Amino acid sequence: MTRMPMLTVLLVALAVVAAPRGAAQSLPPAFQADDALIALDGAIDWTAFGLMAVQDQGRYKSLESFARETMGMLTGRAALPGLSPCGSALEWAFNSAAYEQQRVVYLKDAVMRREFAIDLPKERRAQAERDGLFTPAELRSATVQNRIGELRAITRMASAVSRVLDAVQVAHFYPFMLQAIPAAEGAAEDAWHSPRAALWNLPPETVAELGVDRAALERLTRRNGPIPGLSSEDALAWARLAAAWNARDAAAVNAQLSVIAQRMPEIAGAGHYPPAAQLGAERVYYRMNKFASGWIVYLLAAIVGAVAMVTRWKSPAVVSVLLLLVALAWHATGIGLRWYILGRIPVANMFEATFAAAWMCVLGALLLAWVYRHAAMLVAAAVTGFFALILADFVMPASSTNLGTMMAILDDVMLRIHTTLIVLSYAMVFLAAVLGAMYLFGFYLLRAPAASVEAGVTIGVCGAVMWFVAPAVFTLAASSPVTAAEMQKFPGVAYAAAALAALLFSAIPSLRLFRAPRIACTFAVVFGAGSLTLAVLPYGYFVGWAKTAIYGGAAWTVATLIGAALLSILAARTAVLAPASGGSGGARVSLYDRPIMAGALPGDEHGAARLPRWLHELDWCHLIVLNIIFVALFVGTILGAIWADYSWGRPWGWDPKEVFAMNTWIVYAAIIHVRFVVRDRGLWTAWLSLVGCAVMAFNWYVVNTHIVGLHSYA
């Protein structure tokens, strides 16, 4: 009863180790699960067995979570095509050698696709660049491995290469990654073992019958002795599971999984096996898409809140508040589950910081809306939550959103306080930028609607031109490894773009002499920013700026046209647009009308006759948030310096992150104080708030991911 299972396991192991390493077929087929495998997968009770624990990257997780994460690294999805996540994990652990020549490994980055397809036949290269699918054998080639080593030395390629390395690891070493056999002795953090390692614990007569010597066992299992505390019967259960799986015997697979699911917690040391409740919470967390889908509710809240702000009707405001509460509850459930599963505050990486900071910011804005009774806060809160969850759901790579351990350098109480306060401040920065954009939209809608439409169209056209220009200034030519490393600018483009940016920005004052000064200035600003992006940043940022200009310009134009039409209708029927200085039912705006947090700074009361009261109120809401940002950024930066002093031995070291964090605070100090010296204070504040948000975004993303420093782990 033991010989055939052992032969099956050993043959599979040998097949993986001795897999062919030559060139792949010219057009290998895509992965396709056979009918027997699909039927087997559907017959297994993964509801129960998916909660078996696996040790991975320093923590315990359920088999289902492990499968979702690793299959995401391999295929870009939570499972192999046609299979469940758990079924995919067992198939790849026990039978991956069968798919060496099938296109299953997905590379997301176009640059990486081109890099690793260079030496493939022409038709195969075009196919790989188009769909991003490679065979494990292709990625096993010496050429690819050497190229990975070369690309790892390029800082700007680090993230893309890291994703490739994850995929390669899953493709080639999965049997060793599935560490589902607990350590029976030692500490809770001791390494667990893979089913492959259980070959050492098979009955001696079985090993003797197979004729496997010690050297072969060491090569196959990557260890030099039996697993402590694992009986021969337990080892046989894993071997029989592998044999039954490859035989597509559903009844035998269920039987062996039942034995294994019962025995593994018993093998683990006392308190070393994660509780079922925690594993179940992890399953719910992943099945609910990490609770990032709450952006839909935030979007609805923003739309209804905008109606409440424009009409001042009570019912839409109440509905918007209710929608925000629902979205906050959904959002908080995701944060709470992640906190419970990991056992720590979830602010250790980009995804966690974005998710948690957005929730705190939305809650704070909702409280401000309740205190000051203004729907603008509701709209800004909803838009902030919407964009944060959109980033989490669609933009951030799946590997960066998975549950993971906290880096040792972050495991400090003071640093957690500093990090939480800083990320909350940055979320408030975005909230303020939303309020600033709303003020600008309202200001120009009232003062110059035609010019506002003109500007929106101009911005969109500028974006379209940049989109059209992008292929002409970048190259994908694979004539040499250097130009193929990424989408490179043609020689001289960076210098020409920098010169063009300087020329455009310096020429802005003289552009007022043109017959259409607004169009000329708008072109200069948008093209100047785009040229600056082109000069210093890679292809993705330039194209991203072009897309932002296209979509932003189109949205601004359409919204202005709709707003102008609605306001003309309201002006004829109500007194919504009555000047705040009196007449038509309007009340004069005074210093004492402002909320206390905005009252300490000068406003636009001198221009009450030119601006409606609701625009003043929007400016006050903006000022309240800016005051909070100014204080929170200052305190957060000081706490970071205190932590750095006793952690690194100095409070300040001119690290890139420290420098740009200080730059962000300086921008907001300038925003608050510039109101004392300018005439259109609300207008200047709104524009500078957008500048501050851009500085924050640069610090948040570019400094964290593209500039090497002590904070590169962030």
Task: Give an overview in words.
With 714 residues, the chain is mostly helical. Helices cover 67% and strands 2% of the residues. It contains 30 helices and 6 strands. It has helices at residues 3-17, 35-43, 46-49, 63-75, 85-95, 110-117, 122-131, 136-140, 142-151, 158-177, 204-210, 214-221, 232-246, 250-267, 276-287, 295-311, 314-342, 350-372, 375-395, 398-401, 413-447, 449-473, 481-484, 493-507, 517-536, 539-573, 596-599, 613-648, 656-674, 681-706; strands at residues 53-56, 59-62, 105-106, 133-134, 474-475, 488-489. The strands form 3 sheets. The protein has a two-stranded antiparallel sheet with strand order 1-2. A two-stranded antiparallel sheet has the order 3-4. A two-stranded antiparallel ribbon has the order 5-6. Mean pLDDT is 82; it is low at 9-25, 477-486 and 575-586.
Count all strands and give the number: 6
Shape: elongated
Would you tell me the structural class of the helices and strands? mainly alpha
Stretches with pLDDT under 50, minimum 5 residues: 9-25, 477-486, 575-586
Q: What Rg is obtained from the alpha carbons, in whole angstroms?
A: 30 Å
Biggest beta sheet summary = 2 strands, antiparallel
Strand order of the largest sheet: 1-2
Q: Helices, strands, pairings?
A:
Blueprint: H1 3-17, H2 35-43, H3 46-49, E1 53-56, E2 59-62, H4 63-75, H5 85-95, E3 105-106, H6 110-117, H7 122-131, E4 133-134, H8 136-140, H9 142-151, H10 158-177, H11 204-210, H12 214-221, H13 232-246, H14 250-267, H15 276-287, H16 295-311, H17 314-342, H18 350-372, H19 375-395, H20 398-401, H21 413-447, H22 449-473, E5 474-475, H23 481-484, E6 488-489, H24 493-507, H25 517-536, H26 539-573, H27 596-599, H28 613-648, H29 656-674, H30 681-706
Antiparallel strand pairs: 1-2, 3-4, 5-6
Helix pairs in contact: 1-13, 4-5, 4-10, 6-7, 13-14, 15-17, 16-17, 16-19, 17-18, 17-19, 18-19, 18-21, 19-21, 21-22, 21-28, 21-30, 22-25, 22-26, 24-25, 25-26, 28-29, 28-30, 29-30
